[in-house]
Known about the structure:
Blueprint: E1 22-26, H1 30-40, E2 45-49, E3 65-66, H2 73-87, H3 89-93, E4 100-101, E5 105-110, H4 115-127, E6 134-136, H5 138-144, E7 153-159, E8 163-165, H6 167-180, E9 184-186, E10 191-197, E11 200-206, E12 211-213, E13 216-219, H7 225-231, E14 240-250, H8 263-267, E15 271-273, E16 279-283, E17 286-290, H9 320-329, H10 333-337, E18 340-351, E19 358-361, E20 368-372, H11 378-395, E21 401-404, E22 408-411
Amino acid sequence: MNYNRSDSPxxxxxxxxxxxxxxxxxxxxxxxxxxxxxxSRVGHRVTLIEAQxxxxxxxxxxxxxxxxxxxxxxxxxxxxxxxxxxxKWREYVGTSEIPIVQDGYLFLYSYVxxxxxIQDRVKMQNDAGLTGVVWLExxxxxxxxxYIEVTGLIGATWCPExxxxxxxxxxxxxxxxxxKNGARIIQNDPVIETDRTGDIASAVRLASGELIxxxxxxxxxxxxxxxxxxxxxxADLPIKNRRRYLYFLKGLKxxxxxxxxxxxxxxxxxxxxxxxxxxxxxxxxxxxxxxxQHTEAVEPEFDNQDDVEPGFxxxxxxxxxxxxxxxxxxxxxAVGEVGRIDSVTAGFYADTEDRNPLIGxxxxxxxxxxxxxxxxxxxxxxxxxARIVAELLRAGRDIEEMELPNFGAVDLKPYRIDREFHQRExxxx
Length: 429
């Protein structure tokens, strides 16, 4: 496949007028890689720098989910765009695989929720272009998902276009496609200092000693974004890093026919979110389970990403793993009666106060763009994030709105670095 500008589908950003910019992207996770592809395909001279190996941070430690069921209209449109992007992955980057599986997302709601508010949110999502999401009454839940216990529920929202991703396909094949576009990919060589001319950043120096000059710098390091901003003498980014855990239950597949969870049904089971926010989905032969833990903020390091804090071990019968399983078993009885927790994985969430990401120019460094603070949604957000960065580069400043062809106008104010935190994203798990 040739990677000429004229080959780009219309749903991807139109050509940027000035192709002469030298761009340094710091961070080789999915966000950095897709941004490198997005910018290199229109002729920018891109260098992507990763301190370790591609995907070594949150990209390979996330639940790898993708959904457009959000409460912020901008994010609904953006995630609709992202799902479409991943579906057209072969066409865009030339790989033989696509990195998305659309098994759907099912949010369960109980009497603690306001049914009218949820239905209003569904209408907003429909109006924002997510036409596949619907409200399900209890009878419809039982018909479609007979393995779910509906006692205590008032209904659910269901979107079959949602699902999960394969991160390794994205950052590996995406980096290869960016390189074919002319991008330079550097791994295992962290940025250790920066040069400035007045307020303008002019270069970064790597641990190897190499000095790389650029016109613009993109901070796509997520959990490490505030540290990188500090290297540039940029703004203090309002990001708190928290460790999150995923538990894997063994023995459910093919052993629960009495619950309607045959091997085939189990393999196609959607992401299910309980009324209290615990979630689960199949992961090969295991059931992946998680819950939004209120862990203390931590200082992220590359060698402590996989640490498991006391009380969160997979084998702790009185710890968090047991609480996660108990919550999910309230609505999937089979989870409480079959199998054992096989393992636990850990990773960092880069949380912001309103759970919306930070995407925009640094207030102190005019040629530094931050794209970080995804509160666990960076993987699904990455195509949308890259598109915003492309538009910010085109404008040379922060903008309040951009147009996504086929998806409508998107309000960018909820993502500005200097925003007031008042428009909270309410549908976070």
